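quick one before i forget lol
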Amino acid sequence: MEDDVGWLRESWAYIAGMDNQPVLRNLLISQGYHELSNGFVRMLGPENVTWFTFASWSSKVVGQFIQNEELPELVRDWIEGAEDQRMQRLNAQLRSLHAEPGDAQHVALEAAVRCAVNDMRMYLAEGNRQVFAELAPIFSALLEELGGDLKFDEAKLQRFLRSLEPGPIMPDSVIVDPKSRELKLVARGGQTLLAEAARRYYMAKFEPDPKRRAELILLANATVGLHEQTRLQTYIAGALNAPIGDALSNATHDALAQRIGTALLGPRGRALVDRLLAPLTDHVQRVFHRFATELMMTLKLPDEVLHLGRDLPAPPGEPLFPPVLQKISDPELSSLLAQYSALAERSEERDMVRAIEEAAEALMGKLGFGESFALGTGADDWTQLSQRMRYILEMFRSRQQDKRLLQATFTADQVLALHEGRIPTGPLT
């Protein structure tokens, strides 16, 4: 559809403002990124995918948290695992506090789980909304104003770039409203990285050399990714560190107050309960963090599922990196990749690591395993920006020429429903 980007320019503010329809909003964001991806295909050609192609698929991952009402049950099943005797004892003690232990609404653990999962959904949905609300108008404008140019126009590009706010990007500062439990955006940084990305996408449009064009697009993808991931730091940390331990303590206080009366419980009684529960609530917090990390660090792409805590595998049936990106020539791109240990320019200090990698790949080949990996890319802690960027940069480089990523994220009927403001039928994640 030639007018996809035009639709997005007219609709992005409405989409971002859909406070009472988070599921539909997230679906529209995923589709909006796909339409921006198509717009860049028309501008740059289909050989190299852009940040917006990846964003359409990662936004669908956020959707699985927002849409999946069974998630609290999955978390509770993990916490109540039969192999964990401490959790079994905690559950028995909590349920003994209630006059009607069979009433799910009065089970403290379930209340805590649901509270933590709702916080997790809130952070993920709000982070996705905020990034979309910033990037959609900027890059849809880029496509409409500069995408059809037949020759490079520096003056026209400068006019466009002056519309962006100069300055370094900073993580969003947010607060949680104690009454509504909604996130309130306090501040954010500038858009210098986005200006750099816009310039490189525009330069790539007129670059005749395939390798130089691929590196320009990878550098643009990387700078948009760094801007996005820096902004999202607060939301990702909030989602992974949802205070389930605090919620469990609060739910236990409520259960005791209901059982023996608020006056009898009192502040000293609450403090005593907190001290007794501390080792168990800490354990619950750690278990929930592991579970949330595993769920968040899974990215579904066409023909494969990436586990972001493991080393990045090669695309199915392909080498780890496309030929034009096997070796990086652009010094700025090399510097950025090296900054996040993305193995772009392997220095002398990395020679041993590279030797081990080559030996491992050779051994895998002798054993009949053709798949290669970017060793050391798996993220141990997704709340760390440096670890996220290491994996993301390797993934961008590895999948930049994988045309399977250009597949539609939704069916034609589902897209029609979305454009009409309806939640489509059929599988959505």
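fyi The radius of gyration is 24 Å.
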